[in-house]
Structures are given as C-alpha cells and as structure tokens.
C-alpha cells in the first residue's frame, strides 16, 4: 500500500473527483482509488459501435454541469473542458408531426407552444430569470438558511406539486408533453407530490443555461477535473477496487463515491449500528435500458425541430408518459416506454465519422429488468422518424445488469443511485443534518445518493469535502 496521505477518495465519478479537488485546493494530499480501468464513473466516452464514432457511455447532456456553482468556480477550460450548445436544446415530437421546443430563446419555445405560450412564460420565466440564485440554494448545502428565500420559496410551492397538476393549466399537448418529458427525468410516478421538482429545475435550466454537451464527450468533464487534481498534487490509481478499509493507506479522511450499501460493506465496523441500519434501508428505483447506435445521416425525424435538437424526449403525449412511468415504477415493462435520445454530434461534430453519427438513447425500464427493451425503444423512435431503423449501421445495448457490472453504483440498473421518492429526495441518504458524515472519525459519503442527488454537477462531492474539512478543522 502507498504511503500515508491526508485524504482518500474511493471512486472517480464526477462527485469523487469534485471531492478530491475541493480537498486538494485546501492543501490536503489526496489519493483517489478507482475500480475501473479509467476515471470518470458516469462520464466516460468510448467508440462503442464503429471505429471513429464516439459515444457517451452514460451521461450525455449537461444542464446541471454548466450551471453547477462548483464546476463554474474551477478553471476547467484550462484543463480541456469546453461546453457546446445545439441549435435547439430539447424537442418533444408528437404524432401529428409537430414538436414542443425548449430553448435558451424563450421566444422560440413560445412559438412552439401555441395557446400555452403566455402561461409557459409566466410559469417558468421567473425561475429562469433567477436561475443562478436557485442553483445556489438547490445545489447548496441543506439544513441552512437559504441565500435567496423568495426565489426558493416560489420554487418550493410549485415543486412540491405532482407534475400532472402543473400541466393541468395547459390547453394543448405540446406544452403538456414538453413539461412532462422533463419531469420524467425523475424516473418515478409523475402524479405523486414532489414530482414536479425535477421538471421545473430542468426547464428553468434549459431557458437560463441551456442543455449543452462537452466537446469530445462527457469524459472531458472528469478528465479536466483529474488534470486539475493532478496539477494540485493529487494522485489517482485506476484498476483498484476498494473492498475493505485494509486496502487503503493510512489517512485522516475517507470519502466514498459509492452506493450507501457499498460504503457500509467497505467501512465495516468503523460505522455505528444506527448509520449501518439507516443506510441499509436505502432504496433503488427503476433502471435504464441503454442503446447506442451508429446512424447513417442521423435520425429522419418528421418534426423539423427534432433534427436540430441536442436532446429529444420520445414518448408521445403527457398522458402516455405518465402511464409509462407509473407502469415502470410499479415493476411492469411497457411496449411504449419513455425514451431519452441525445444527438450530441449536432453540437460537437467531432463525435461523428463523416456522415455516420452516434445516437445515444435509453428507455426507462423496471428495476433489475431481465427482459429486452431494445425493440420497444427503437419502435418509439421510429414512430416519430419513419425510416430511422433502415439507417442503423451498428448497435450497442447495455441493460440493467450490464450497467451494474460496469459501475457498481448503478444497483439494479438504477442510474440515479437511489429511488427519487419524496422521502429520499428530502432525506438522502438518511434523516440527518449531516448527510455526508458517516462516522465521527473521518468517513464520508459523496455519491449521487447524497444531496443534491443525481447528475453531473459535482456538488455532492464538493459539499461532502467541505463537511470533511470542517470536521477536520475541529478534530485538529
Ligand atoms: C445511461 C446514463 C445516462 C445518464 N445521463 C445523464 C445526463 O445526460 N446528464 C447528467 O447530468 N447525468 C446523467 N447521468 C447520471 C450521472 O452520470 C450520475 O448521476 C453521476 O455520474 C453520478 O456521479 P457520482 O460521482 O456520484 O458516481 P459515478 O459517476 O457513478 O462514479 C462512481 C465511481 O466509483 C467507482 N467505484 C464504485 N465503487 C468502488 C470501489 N469499491 N472501489 C473503487 N472504485 C469504486 C465506480 O467504478 C465509478 O467510477 C446518466 C447516467 C447513466 C448511467
């Protein structure tokens, strides 16, 4: 084992690396251990189908990354990270050939929503205008006085509602479907209290900051964090799975970028029985069925807007999506799942080889789903883009079991590392005012199972490291 260091981070996802950078910026000697052969967790990029065509293995589109207060505070551009925006951030096609559009240009969105244009602007305009303030409080530490109570209060009043309630006031399908598709990133029932929150956040992000991709692939985000870490003296060891505390060098602080249960397994009796019990109760949600495609000439969407959109939500009407999410959350597969499609090459042509383009897609399926959702996923896209299947040159499929084998944080294929129930959104990973602290002697959890939750923003890692630094200051 290597020499003593100040701090160890187990796992090199965006949160693990954000924790490591936060600690290194304060002068601590940090060593990151990663089980896989490369850093990055949910941000790796690879030639999954055809040589020269680059696919994002997991995360693809980064409204929370570009808006993250922590990532924005770092000189990541000097370490190779460049964001790029598609002409249209998000489009949502309907069977009649039209599409709702989410854009940084509110006017473009309004033009796609017909009779609901004014209501959309009244509803989401204020959140977009005060988006930076919202980010500080929503992505910041919980259990403290908010910096912007008015903006947060206004958000809270809407966010606590069911997503289905929020769409009741819209008169036409484009607006209903556009919002419901963004709300469905929750991966849970959309008629439950609190299910509007993710949709409001992502819609406001779309108007305020856009839904960009990272040039070269999502790997550029964690490669930049790693490069910054190394420039600060940090060390990274890949291909090293941590199984117990005995695997680690002597140190003052250990930060786990793992699932709660994995942290319990590794930390063993360093954790008190109460913490072990409550982390053991952590529940996982529905899974992803990921399909990467090399498509000649791209997808021939009927709706013109979809041909210019970085992200396309495929699932039809709001009612269909609500039904699909209810089924999947109840453990039942559906022929018409909600499908997220990303066309990163529109903002980053370096991903393509000539006219052969990478298409990223995943469908929501039940937790641990053992069937095959590939046909259902492809049929959903074909429904809004006749002729699409004829253009597919190569396919790479990753179901829930393969996702978990790829990254143990995706238990049962749950890519959010935990069900987004109201209880787990408010008390993650357990009911406590110290969500990151696992023990009084320097153990912390920093993965997406901690606040503010899933997504590539690094805030869980940054805040866990800040908690560790505060404790360390007291202990020393
Ligand atoms: C298919 C898919 C699509 C997604 N799309 C998006 C998107 O478009 N935008 C977005 O913002 N987010 C997206 N996400 C979610 C996002 O990737 C995650 O929320 C984010 O990566 C979580 O970061 P993390 O650091 O908590 O954990 P992870 O990124 O999961 O990283 C954890 C790391 O820890 C390592 N590890 C675990 N246990 C050990 C151990 N015992 N020893 C050593 N190493 C260990 C793992 O190998 C892994 O590298 C997507 C995820 C998936 C899978």
Keywords, separated by commas or semicolons:
binds flavin-adenine dinucleotide, 476 residues, 7-stranded mixed beta sheet, FAD/NAD(P)-binding domain, 36% helix
Task: Explain the overall architecture.
- The chain has a domain at 7-81 and 214-282 and 417-475: FAD/NAD(P)-binding domain, CATH 3.50.50.
- The protein has 18 helices and 16 strands.
- The chain has helices at 14-25, 63-67, 69-73, 106-112, 117-129, 131-138, 149-159, 163-166, 173-183, 197-208, 219-231, 260-267, 273-280, 318-329, 374-384, 400-406, 422-426, 459-475; strands at residues 7-10, 30-33, 45-46, 55-56, 83-84, 88-93, 99-102, 213-214, 235-237, 253-256, 287-296, 309-314, 339-342, 356-365, 392-398, 443-445.
- Strands 7-6-12-13-14-11-15 form a seven-stranded mixed sheet, sandwiched between helices.
- It is globular and about 65 Å long.
- The two termini are 25 Å apart.
- Bound molecules: flavin-adenine dinucleotide (FAD).
